[in-house]
Amino acid sequence: MNNPIYVSGGSKGGVGKSINTMGLIHTLRSADQEVLLIESDTSNPDVWKLYKDEIKTELIDLDDANGWIDLVNICDMNPSLNVVINTAARNNRGVTAYGETLNNTLQDLNRNLITLWVINRQRDSLELLKEYMDALPNSVVHVVRNGYYGEERKFELYNESKIRRSVEDKGGKSLTFPELADRVSDDLYSKRFSIDRAMKELPLGNRAELTRWLSEVRKVLGEVIDG
Ligand SMILES: Nc1ncnc2c1ncn2[C@@H]1O[C@H](COP(=O)(O)OP(=O)(O)OP(=O)(O)O)[C@@H](O)[C@H]1O
Ligand SMILES: [Mg+2]
Questions:
Q1: Where are the alpha helices (DSSP H) in the chain?
Q2: Which residues form the CobQ/CobB/MinD/ParA nucleotide binding domain (predicted)?
Q3: Is any ligand 1 atom within 6 A of the Cβ of residue 18?
Q4: Given a cut of 80, is residue 132 above it in pLDDT?
Q5: CATH fold for the domain made of 5-221
Q6: What percentage of the chain reaches a pLDDT higher than 90?
Q7: Among 226, 111, 112, 218, which residue's Cα sits nearest to residue 175?
Q8: Ligand 1 in contact with 120 (CB < 6 A)?
Protein backbone atom coordinates (compact mmCIF):
# COMPACT_ATOMS: atom_id res chain seq x y z
CA MET A 1 0.00 0.00 0.00
CA ASN A 2 1.25 3.51 -0.80
CA ASN A 3 0.97 6.24 1.81
CA PRO A 4 -2.50 7.62 2.54
CA ILE A 5 -4.27 10.72 1.35
CA TYR A 6 -5.50 12.77 4.30
CA VAL A 7 -8.26 15.35 3.97
CA SER A 8 -8.73 18.05 6.58
CA GLY A 9 -12.38 18.83 5.96
CA GLY A 10 -15.43 20.28 7.61
CA SER A 11 -16.78 22.47 4.84
CA LYS A 12 -17.94 25.15 7.29
CA GLY A 13 -15.94 28.36 7.47
CA GLY A 14 -13.77 28.91 10.51
CA VAL A 15 -14.23 25.52 12.22
CA GLY A 16 -10.47 24.87 12.40
CA LYS A 17 -9.66 23.05 9.14
CA SER A 18 -6.40 24.96 8.68
CA ILE A 19 -5.11 24.57 12.23
CA ASN A 20 -6.02 20.88 12.08
CA THR A 21 -4.01 20.61 8.85
CA MET A 22 -1.01 22.15 10.60
CA GLY A 23 -1.40 19.74 13.51
CA LEU A 24 -1.61 16.82 11.09
CA ILE A 25 1.48 17.88 9.13
CA HIS A 26 3.36 18.17 12.42
CA THR A 27 2.17 14.76 13.64
CA LEU A 28 3.13 13.03 10.39
CA ARG A 29 6.56 14.66 10.23
CA SER A 30 7.20 13.78 13.88
CA ALA A 31 6.57 10.17 12.88
CA ASP A 32 9.21 10.53 10.11
CA GLN A 33 6.60 10.59 7.38
CA GLU A 34 7.21 12.81 4.38
CA VAL A 35 4.32 15.13 3.52
CA LEU A 36 3.01 16.69 0.32
CA LEU A 37 0.58 19.50 1.12
CA ILE A 38 -2.25 20.17 -1.30
CA GLU A 39 -3.77 23.55 -0.54
CA SER A 40 -7.22 23.75 -2.06
CA ASP A 41 -8.19 26.99 -0.34
CA THR A 42 -7.00 29.03 -3.31
CA SER A 43 -8.62 32.30 -2.16
CA ASN A 44 -6.99 32.16 1.29
CA PRO A 45 -4.13 29.65 1.08
CA ASP A 46 -3.06 30.14 4.69
CA VAL A 47 -1.44 26.75 5.27
CA TRP A 48 0.34 26.88 1.92
CA LYS A 49 1.88 30.27 2.84
CA LEU A 50 3.29 28.77 6.03
CA TYR A 51 4.72 25.62 4.46
CA LYS A 52 5.65 26.43 0.87
CA ASP A 53 9.35 26.81 1.68
CA GLU A 54 9.50 23.81 4.00
CA ILE A 55 7.78 20.92 2.27
CA LYS A 56 6.52 20.02 -1.16
CA THR A 57 3.23 21.85 -1.82
CA GLU A 58 0.68 22.30 -4.60
CA LEU A 59 -2.19 24.77 -4.95
CA ILE A 60 -5.21 23.08 -6.49
CA ASP A 61 -8.74 24.38 -6.91
CA LEU A 62 -11.09 21.53 -5.94
CA ASP A 63 -14.21 23.44 -7.02
CA ASP A 64 -13.25 22.54 -10.56
CA ALA A 65 -13.12 19.20 -12.42
CA ASN A 66 -9.55 19.96 -13.54
CA GLY A 67 -8.43 20.26 -9.94
CA TRP A 68 -9.59 16.72 -9.19
CA ILE A 69 -7.77 15.40 -12.25
CA ASP A 70 -4.58 17.16 -11.12
CA LEU A 71 -5.06 15.84 -7.60
CA VAL A 72 -5.28 12.23 -8.76
CA ASN A 73 -2.27 12.64 -11.07
CA ILE A 74 -0.14 14.21 -8.35
CA CYS A 75 -1.07 11.44 -5.91
CA ASP A 76 -0.16 8.91 -8.60
CA MET A 77 3.23 10.52 -9.27
CA ASN A 78 4.25 10.75 -5.60
CA PRO A 79 3.45 7.34 -4.12
CA SER A 80 5.95 7.64 -1.26
CA LEU A 81 4.53 10.91 0.06
CA ASN A 82 1.70 11.28 2.53
CA VAL A 83 -0.73 13.63 0.83
CA VAL A 84 -2.43 16.15 3.14
CA ILE A 85 -5.26 18.20 1.64
CA ASN A 86 -6.30 21.42 3.32
CA THR A 87 -9.83 22.23 2.21
CA ALA A 88 -11.67 25.50 1.83
CA ALA A 89 -15.00 26.54 3.30
CA ARG A 90 -17.96 25.31 1.21
CA ASN A 91 -15.80 22.58 -0.25
CA ASN A 92 -18.82 20.24 -0.23
CA ARG A 93 -20.01 21.49 -3.59
CA GLY A 94 -16.81 20.39 -5.32
CA VAL A 95 -16.77 17.11 -3.38
CA THR A 96 -20.34 16.31 -4.36
CA ALA A 97 -19.75 17.18 -8.01
CA TYR A 98 -16.33 15.60 -8.57
CA GLY A 99 -15.38 13.57 -5.48
CA GLU A 100 -16.11 10.44 -7.47
CA THR A 101 -12.95 11.10 -9.51
CA LEU A 102 -10.87 10.45 -6.41
CA ASN A 103 -13.18 7.90 -4.80
CA ASN A 104 -12.97 5.64 -7.85
CA THR A 105 -9.21 5.88 -8.34
CA LEU A 106 -8.16 5.00 -4.78
CA GLN A 107 -7.70 1.37 -5.70
CA ASP A 108 -5.45 2.19 -8.66
CA LEU A 109 -3.56 4.70 -6.53
CA ASN A 110 -3.21 1.97 -3.94
CA ARG A 111 -3.86 4.50 -1.20
CA ASN A 112 -6.27 4.87 1.69
CA LEU A 113 -8.31 8.04 1.96
CA ILE A 114 -8.51 9.26 5.54
CA THR A 115 -10.69 12.24 6.34
CA LEU A 116 -10.49 14.31 9.50
CA TRP A 117 -13.82 16.12 9.68
CA VAL A 118 -13.48 19.15 11.92
CA ILE A 119 -16.62 20.31 13.70
CA ASN A 120 -17.77 23.07 15.98
CA ARG A 121 -20.90 22.59 18.10
CA GLN A 122 -23.48 23.49 15.49
CA ARG A 123 -25.81 21.26 13.55
CA ASP A 124 -24.73 22.19 10.03
CA SER A 125 -21.28 20.60 10.64
CA LEU A 126 -23.12 17.28 10.93
CA GLU A 127 -25.45 17.78 7.98
CA LEU A 128 -22.47 18.60 5.78
CA LEU A 129 -20.69 15.49 7.05
CA LYS A 130 -23.51 13.27 5.87
CA GLU A 131 -23.30 14.81 2.41
CA TYR A 132 -19.52 14.28 2.38
CA MET A 133 -19.74 10.63 3.40
CA ASP A 134 -22.26 10.00 0.62
CA ALA A 135 -19.95 11.63 -1.94
CA LEU A 136 -16.75 9.85 -0.82
CA PRO A 137 -17.97 6.50 0.50
CA ASN A 138 -14.51 4.94 0.30
CA SER A 139 -12.99 7.33 2.83
CA VAL A 140 -12.48 6.42 6.45
CA VAL A 141 -13.86 9.41 8.33
CA HIS A 142 -12.78 10.52 11.78
CA VAL A 143 -14.61 13.38 13.47
CA VAL A 144 -12.51 16.03 15.16
CA ARG A 145 -14.39 18.03 17.80
CA ASN A 146 -12.44 21.27 17.92
CA GLY A 147 -11.80 21.95 21.60
CA TYR A 148 -11.52 25.65 20.77
CA TYR A 149 -15.33 25.62 20.72
CA GLY A 150 -15.79 23.98 24.09
CA GLU A 151 -15.14 20.86 26.10
CA GLU A 152 -15.89 17.44 24.68
CA ARG A 153 -19.14 17.04 26.66
CA LYS A 154 -20.49 20.24 25.16
CA PHE A 155 -20.57 18.67 21.69
CA GLU A 156 -23.88 17.04 22.66
CA LEU A 157 -25.41 17.33 19.21
CA TYR A 158 -22.64 15.22 17.74
CA ASN A 159 -22.04 13.00 20.77
CA GLU A 160 -25.64 11.79 20.74
CA SER A 161 -26.18 11.80 16.99
CA LYS A 162 -26.94 9.02 14.54
CA ILE A 163 -24.09 10.21 12.35
CA ARG A 164 -21.67 9.49 15.19
CA ARG A 165 -22.83 5.90 15.23
CA SER A 166 -22.44 5.61 11.48
CA VAL A 167 -18.93 7.14 11.64
CA GLU A 168 -17.84 4.74 14.39
CA ASP A 169 -19.56 1.71 12.78
CA LYS A 170 -17.33 2.29 9.75
CA GLY A 171 -14.18 2.32 11.89
CA GLY A 172 -13.95 6.11 12.32
CA LYS A 173 -12.97 7.69 15.62
CA SER A 174 -14.38 10.65 17.50
CA LEU A 175 -11.49 12.82 18.65
CA THR A 176 -11.10 16.08 20.52
CA PHE A 177 -8.55 18.52 19.13
CA PRO A 178 -6.76 20.64 21.75
CA GLU A 179 -7.02 24.38 22.06
CA LEU A 180 -3.90 26.50 21.60
CA ALA A 181 -3.68 29.83 23.47
CA ASP A 182 -4.94 32.59 21.18
CA ARG A 183 -1.75 34.64 21.36
CA VAL A 184 0.29 31.70 20.06
CA SER A 185 -2.14 30.80 17.28
CA ASP A 186 -2.11 34.50 16.35
CA ASP A 187 1.70 34.22 16.13
CA LEU A 188 1.36 31.42 13.60
CA TYR A 189 -1.24 33.15 11.44
CA SER A 190 -0.10 36.77 11.58
CA LYS A 191 3.65 36.17 11.39
CA ARG A 192 3.10 33.31 8.91
CA PHE A 193 5.25 30.99 10.99
CA SER A 194 5.16 27.30 10.33
CA ILE A 195 5.30 25.28 13.53
CA ASP A 196 9.01 24.53 13.04
CA ARG A 197 9.80 28.18 12.52
CA ALA A 198 7.70 29.23 15.52
CA MET A 199 9.64 26.73 17.65
CA LYS A 200 12.81 28.61 16.74
CA GLU A 201 11.65 32.21 16.78
CA LEU A 202 8.93 32.74 19.39
CA PRO A 203 9.68 33.87 22.95
CA LEU A 204 10.25 31.10 25.48
CA GLY A 205 6.81 31.26 27.11
CA ASN A 206 5.05 31.12 23.74
CA ARG A 207 7.23 28.19 22.70
CA ALA A 208 6.39 26.38 25.93
CA GLU A 209 2.66 26.74 25.19
CA LEU A 210 3.24 25.57 21.63
CA THR A 211 5.20 22.55 22.89
CA ARG A 212 2.39 21.64 25.30
CA TRP A 213 -0.21 21.92 22.55
CA LEU A 214 1.86 19.93 20.04
CA SER A 215 2.26 17.06 22.43
CA GLU A 216 -1.54 16.97 22.87
CA VAL A 217 -1.99 17.18 19.09
CA ARG A 218 0.37 14.22 18.53
CA LYS A 219 -1.53 12.17 21.10
CA VAL A 220 -4.87 12.86 19.42
CA LEU A 221 -3.92 12.75 15.73
CA GLY A 222 -1.35 10.00 16.28
CA GLU A 223 -4.37 7.70 16.65
CA VAL A 224 -5.46 8.17 13.07
CA ILE A 225 -2.25 8.30 11.05
CA ASP A 226 -0.81 5.23 9.39
CA GLY A 227 2.74 4.41 10.34
N1 LIG B 1 -7.82 24.50 18.45
C2 LIG B 1 -7.60 25.81 18.27
N3 LIG B 1 -6.75 26.47 19.08
C4 LIG B 1 -6.53 27.79 18.90
N5 LIG B 1 -7.11 28.55 17.97
C6 LIG B 1 -7.99 27.95 17.15
C7 LIG B 1 -8.28 26.55 17.25
N8 LIG B 1 -9.17 26.25 16.31
C9 LIG B 1 -9.43 27.38 15.64
N10 LIG B 1 -8.73 28.41 16.15
C11 LIG B 1 -8.75 29.81 15.68
O12 LIG B 1 -9.95 30.03 14.94
C13 LIG B 1 -9.67 30.65 13.70
C14 LIG B 1 -10.18 29.78 12.56
O15 LIG B 1 -9.38 28.61 12.49
P16 LIG B 1 -8.92 28.01 11.07
O17 LIG B 1 -8.34 29.09 10.25
O18 LIG B 1 -8.10 26.82 11.35
O19 LIG B 1 -10.35 27.62 10.51
P20 LIG B 1 -10.72 27.17 9.02
O21 LIG B 1 -11.81 26.16 9.14
O22 LIG B 1 -9.51 26.79 8.28
O23 LIG B 1 -11.30 28.53 8.44
P24 LIG B 1 -11.57 28.89 6.87
O25 LIG B 1 -12.90 28.29 6.54
O26 LIG B 1 -11.59 30.38 6.87
O27 LIG B 1 -10.45 28.29 6.08
C28 LIG B 1 -8.17 30.89 13.63
O29 LIG B 1 -7.93 32.25 13.87
C30 LIG B 1 -7.58 30.06 14.73
O31 LIG B 1 -6.58 30.76 15.39
MG1 LIG C 1 -8.72 27.34 6.44
A1: 17-30, 46-51, 65-77, 92-103, 106-109, 123-135, 156-159, 162-169, 182-191, 195-201, 204-221
A2: 10-144
A3: yes
A4: yes
A5: Rossmann fold (3.40.50)
A6: 99
A7: 218
A8: no
